[in-house]
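Input:
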Amino acid sequence: MERITINSHNHIYDVYIGKSIISEIFNIHKEFLINKKVIIITDKNVYKIYHKYIFDEFCKIGCESKFIILDPGENSKDLENIYRIYKELIEFKVKRTDVIIAFGGGVVGDISGFIASTYLRGVDYVQIPTTLLSQVDSSIGGKVAVNFMKIKNVVGSFYNPRFVIIDIDLLSTLRKEQIIDGLGEIIKYSFISDEGLIQTLEEHDLNTIKDCFLKIIIDCIKIKKYYVEKDPYDLNERKILNFGHTFAHAMESYLGYENISHGMAVGFGIYILLKNCNALGIISCSLFKRCLNLLNKYNVLRQEGLDTKHILDYAYKDKKSSNKEIDIILLHDIGKPYIKRIGLDELNIYLS
Ligand code: GLY
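Output:
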């Protein structure tokens, strides 16, 4: 088992990564969990497969537990749902000293973290991510938010978990599309880190890459740790983690969140950006070819015609753009990302 400690603005927490480690970690944190009410927020799909297993684990250490079950998907991330959860917490007499468990993918993590950060001015929460995407990215770094007025993540905060358990056994029940979803973010990490991660991806394919998940997840979390510790509130360096995301977010809003996974959208965002960077002479042909090979090999590239006007409209509305400028993430080479502030009217240069 690997333990990575994150120190985010003096909030220090451990991320445990391994295989079949949930029991062991609950034991390590027995003193923290014992005699508490444990509220497990999950979705219907995860509940169906794992509820007995996780319930028994909490029974073993003497916790009174209760599930709150959400519909899967981005539509659950709205304030109506949040009101319902607050109501359940009040009915169940949850106190500030109790604990919330986020047991699911990114949507469950976001909702649980948002609830934990606001209910009774903040209760402890633990992340147990169950998808590849949430294991490599969203369970770390404390970004928690919900959608409002159809604007993604517009209401939220930074609120770090007490600890995070990443158990790769949980990946065995994922569908192929969910693995591909995670690979979109992993490919992003491979471009902003050194050659190691990209070489692993190049040496494998969709059938064999599963054997490397443990190492890949550890690599991604080490990269995320670096940026999150340097810039916990996403004001400077952490923006590098958004490589490919400007166009990815526009794509998701254009097609609808239920019609394209986040990882596929990131794949598209990286493709369109590097294709144009190559045409502009900002990156080499060989780097663009490596990018294209990876995206194709892992099925992370869906060829879409995208209305550039829509992207520009989206960028104007994006909470991350200030005045008439936006920060985009470019690469000099593998492992050499940089932030470039451009006028929104320059964005179309990267979009043809
Ligand atoms: N997913 C990007 C970040 O956490 O900053």
